[in-house]
Protein 1
Amino acid sequence: MPLSYPRPHRPNPARRLAAAVTTALLAAGVLVGCSGDDGPQRTVDAFLAGWRSGDLQAVGLIDPLGSKLPSADVAREIKDLSGELASTPPKLTRRGEPKITKDIATTTVQVEWTLPGQTRWAYDREVRLAHGDDDQWQVIWEPKVVHEQLTKGDRLALRRDPGARAAVLDNAGKPLVTPRPVVRVGVQPNGVTDLKKLVKDLDAAFKAIRPALVPGVDLADLPDRVAKAEPGAFVEVVSLREEAYRQIKPRIYDLPGTKFISDKIDLAPTREFARALLGTVDQAQADDLAAHPDRYVVGDLVGHGGLQGRYDERLRGGPGLTVVVERPAEGGKLEPTGAELFRREPQPGQALKTTLDVAVQNSADGALRAEPRRSALVAIRISDGAVLAAANGPGPAGENLAFDAQVPPGSTFKMVSTLGLLDRGAVTLDGPVDCKKTFTVDGRSFKNSDNFELGSVPFRTDFAKSCNTAFAALAPKLGGDGLAAAGRSLGLEGQWDLGTDAFTGKVSTGGSLAEQAAASFGQGTTLVSPLAMAGATAAVARGRFEQPKLLIDPAPAKPAPAGEQLKPESVKALRTMMREVVTAGTGSALKDVPGEVYGKTGTAEYDDNPAHTHAWFVGWRGDVAFAVFVEKGGASTASAVPIAERFLRALPTP
């Protein structure tokens, strides 16, 4: 019998039950139609709510032929059809009022899925309803309600295409990391004759590589992986740069069971090349997947540490997403049908442009290569403050002593205290200052390295020979905050924005007379990093502080403002003294290095044992200022100065 709409309200028990369901849906925040209790919109809204919740008990369901369907079966089929999207049900919105023709109503529903990366996929579907003999509207269920291209047994699946990872660029705009040849070293289980011996031999060979692999190759799980692998499988152990592989090829090539595959991997110019500053790019690790399940999947490349980690999202870009249809094949395995329902193209990453100079960085890395202790070297272009190199010697992977170390500067800080003394007119180049064997302040005795004394000599000689007692005696002329003021004029303690973390120093201020005496030659509570000292040295060479720069694009938002011009007469005298350190002082090992080298040595006690010292050298030649630090390096002339010499000899002569 034809249906007229709307019909007059006729209360009955079934309708009271439906009203209760509607009330519950409203309480749950579901949009429910309100134009007539008998209208199909109420059933549509209940169906949409049940679709999202997985509970369709409040809805009558029939197939296209009119046969009743169990609500649990339909709920299960919706979940199955949703496939990989089932864990994030779509937002469902009824568009307008249903259109009724006789006993059939049709309504439009917007289906809006939120895909990984907050990608929106929305489309409209039609939901049909039939008016039953029991005076209730029933949803006509079929798979195409979910999507028009779905049929029974289909599944929605996601295909993810990573975007092209962008490069970190040098100061010439060329990628620092490019495809470079490697050899993948592995084991084939059915070729192994003695697994225990193989592991021992591989371990010894890997440990013989120089410079040492950081981190080392962990073979602890190799026996278990070999035992579980197929007999003819390639069980990868490590990928080695060609130059590292060649070192140990004679030791491992003929070991029973070893296999080798030549490949190319995106790598920096050398294994050491600014490794702590740049970071690494590796396949997503378990903690990456756990922390960002919506961002990474197994197999993704992820930046770890350094610039690669800090700017991972920028560099990696956005993955492409494709929603496809899968269907069970013979044996029940799901296979793609070839249908693509939605596609978002991958977005390539954006490059980082740095100020790093490949030649200078290679020189810095090479200078530290023979140093077994933790060490660092930072080089800065004086003319514009560009960081040309940030090198780190042996140490934990990712440790950036060059930027992060917080250590006493020792006698390199005489550069800062001398500037303060010159600014105050407390000393002159040739004015006599006594260099005693010892000098006592408030019961604390200060001495010079190897207990030397010079007597009354020109101040320039005290500086060149690095006389601690002379500076301890001059400390009162700086006043309580004079040293800190001089340090700040060179950028120390500043709020620098390089686009990565860096320690800019903490200069002793105030304190007892003994503390002021110690601070005058870089002891006491003063702490610096190699970057901070390289920046201060560049400021002396330049005549004005300018914050070191590392990133060109994206440029840091809040770099520190440039400092005021330093007093020309003070800077001129200080430069003269720093040249004499090399020509006639503690840095004389550098006097035959090509070009005019300026500098200051430093030996810094780091605990209560005077024999425990860090070694420093800061200086410049031409347009390159630099700082060398060697942890527990002893005398600077035995460790830091030779590193500085290797660095300068490797650089082109200005």
Protein 2
Amino acid sequence: MTRTPLRPLARILDARARGENPKAIERENIRKRHEDMKDRARARAEGRLLVLGLFFFCAFSIVGFRMGMLATSEAQEPLASAPGAAIAMQRANIVDREGRILATNLDTYSVYAQPPLMIDPVAAAEQLVAIFPDLEKERLIKDFTGNRKFLWIKKRISPEQKQAVHDIGDPGILFGPREMRLYPNGRLAAHILGGSGFGREGVSAAEVIGVAGVEKQFDDYLRDPANGNKPLQLSLDLTIQAAVEQVLYGGMKIMNAKGASAVLMNAHTGEVISAASLPSFDPNDRPRPPTSGFDPSDSPLFNRYVQGVYELGSVFKIFTAAQAVELGLVNSNTIIDTSGPMKIGRFPIGEFNGKNYGKISVADVIVHSSNRGTGRLALQIGAKRQQEFLDALGMFDPTPFEIVEAKGGVPLKPKKWGELSTVTISYGHGLSTSPMHLAAGYAAIANGGHYVSPTILRQNGPQYGPRVMSQNTARQAQKMLRKVVTDGTASFAEVKGYDVAGKTGTADKPKPRGGYYDDKVIATFATIFPAYDPQYVLIVTLDEPSIVAYGEKRRTAGWTAVPVAAELIGRVAPLLGLRPRLEPEAGAAITLTSN
């Protein structure tokens, strides 16, 4: 800063020349300097006071705003909470193809205790046991009178139970809001939905997470707050699912089967309209997984149509015939010698019940379900081409069906695919797949030759994948399957008004530790309908069926799975919007004559 001299020489000389006192000039300059210093000090003080005033104004405004919020909010118990991300709530709904609710949310409460705040722990424990009989009175008293600061009593209670607990009146028993997953249809489509449970939990919220089925497969979508108003729409039809489960349950009981499964799939879109596995469970009260035993199918949690990987038997024969036609080796009228003996190495290839069909057409090989006939076709095809065809049908990988259990349905194929495996796999032995794999394979025949991925999500229009066979081959295969119903092993599958085409398959059931049972089978009927314009594929599988008919115990699919499938088609075809095609009745035998 530049300072002005108190005795400027120019002014001093001028004052002396005029006879004035030079000291007056110095005194005047000192006075002006002091006044400037006072003005600057006053300005600094005023600025500091202004900043301090603004600070106090903001502080008191924030405190007043917070006091206003507290005065207008509902009082709550002060609870300690661990640091971390907020618990996500509001899981999206799951609906069927018509928008009907399959899974939704229900607001409820949890009840917990803070023993240090309790007035009469013993009386509170006695009254809680009266409300919740599954609680142990002695354990509650021990917890309430011990050193515990917090414990859960029930993580999910009904409104009636909440009122009853509230009436106890103990300040140490408190409630927390809860959102629980509700499946209003109970057991219906249980294996598709899977179920849910609680993830991270707090006294003011609980995180609902999927534990199985589509709940787990689409967990990220369902938990995303942005999708709270956008439900997950499945391809299932709730009405058809109910009919399928009802008929399948009745069929399982009549056929004395241990379990059963059914898959109904649109052959053009890949949409699974219905999928059922029995025995089932209620996802509202999902049982715990088994901790012992060697057979997973003993548990109701076992999903038979994707996890049930078995040799499915003669239902595979149509794939062999279709590939032989596709390669130009035969057509449906080509004669095949099915007479014996037939051996691959030291292993004989025989027919069911020792039959010998002689020389028959390829179509009749399928109609009579000849092992030797399909085996000889497979030898013409060869192992490499057979593997390529089955791989194109998706028989070597888990199905892309969108539930987490589908990943566990890994097909079992031979380590060495030699000539023997080529023959046995041609008639459904040596390669283990699930009913869902089979549905995708038969869909390719039904839709004219395209592979279609099974899906649980609603689709818009056909979803054709790669072509695996020509339309001509698919048409010939459809006619062979239709002939199985009209002339072969699936005669019980005829449904009036709906031309049904399909193939039966009966395979010995494998033991969990290796080998096969002598008296237990997996009976399967794979069908497409209506045969004149195939739209749907239906796979029905029964685990260990056995009935007595005409004085004999019968286990084959023609006697067990086929009648169940026929009843299913008769029940669901009208629900699918398929109109029956009835043959015109013959005219009355009346002759008009004149008198």
Protein 3
Amino acid sequence: MPARRQVLQAAALSVTGPAAGAGADLLEPESKGPPAGRGCVPPLGPVTVDPDDSRYQDLVRRGHKRYVGSPDYVRVVGSTEQVVQAVQEAVRDGGRVAVRSGGHCLENWVDDASIQVLIDLSGMTQVYYDPERNAFAVEGGADLEQVYRRLFLGWGVTIPAGWCPKVGAGGHFTGGGYGVLSRTHGLVVDHLYGIEVVVVDGAGRASAVVATRDSTGAERELWWAHTGGGGGNFGIVTRFWLRTPGVRGTDPSDLLPKAPASTIDFSCTWPWQGLNMDEEKFARLIRNHGEWCERNSAPGAPGTALYCDLTVARRATDVNLTVGQAHGPDAERLVEDYLTALGAGVGTPINVVRERKPWLTAALSGPNASKLYRLKAKSGYLRKRYDESQVQAIYRRLTAERDPELIIGSVGFASYGGKINTVAPSATAHGHRDAIMRVLFMSTWNDPAVDERYDNWLRALYRDVYRDTGGVPDPRDGAYINYPDNDLADPAHNTSGVPWHRLYYKDNYPRLQRAKSRWDPRNIFTHTLGIQP
């Protein structure tokens, strides 16, 4: 049972993804590195690893267990200059390119037989203050653990990113970047000041470009496209610059949100058997959570200092799990009020844990179990809680069978809204600015022989929940690009008539296409859900 709770918690909390002047700068790439490192040899790379190299298997298996690629070679890079060179060689040779930062992509965009050149950013993990741009620089290969630790220990600041510390910044940031502090501070992209990205022009020439929110014209559109346009669409981001809009002065400790001194992390389970969980109690549990989110997701509401995620799972696992985190002076009361509201008419949970932690301890102790199993994921946003028929559909699927090979089959409801919803839908490429919950559907298993069976199990659940809107979310709600689902671009599975890009980008897709045409006209950087020029 503890192992199942750990996997459920990882499913609930993992947030994924793939990978200051006015205008863009064509760089001598090494010129924008850490001030103390200019002119120094890059810390790692370039290293070319082919299938006969002892390092190859490790490098092609950094992603999720289900997907293992077979590229002609992996290029491990340590600087922007090396990325430019690697991309240029791949374009010259006609090889299809993919990039890996953290390795958490939930689909086969990076690890696939069609990928011939894999560019691995393992050598680019620096996080530092850049006085030239008066912003914090994060290299594209850094993971959230490195970002959190260095920002906090150096300056006492943080970003509102995900709870899984091993997620890579590259894919997470470009897809929007959502985490436990987002209801208070917005998305990561709401603090994105600039990017350094390696692009390929119409003549096939690779170069590094810097674009910021102070840029104009096509360069500003390149920056905008990276504020939620998803990883792997326009080029390879080698560096992000982060600074909260509207801040004044040059003191680094004032440029990003202050990290809380401490948080209260909480979790508890609502067992099927122990609570004699029938359909009425099950529906009440989900309704209680949804109603709490409806009452506590307005921008500035006190409840936005609490993040909560209710994950309901198959009856065979006997686990329904609530996890969350609260910060601020009213943290204890917020947790107590939420758990009281959640349990009304349901019963008393078990395995209740409430633990006050120093903030950095909490940030670095998030789940890292998301790569243990083969999996399939789907997503949705909610502007209001599910209706009765949708909850009934979930109940039927989670209680229908006792298949022992399906380790986890679950639906998770994470709180959303707050500060996120103060930004106009067109101000960033992430257009989901009116949701109160994010939903994650997931199935996990071990045996490759049953991949199709459990893909289909999850497809049936998703289709049943969204039966009234054609088997996919209402396009006014949409889905989260950092939980990519290739099925939405497959007419065999998406028969709704709603284009996949409408679900992920709402009205922002045409603008993303124009940026794609300008900055990647040869469509070098693409995947199943790739933005098309």
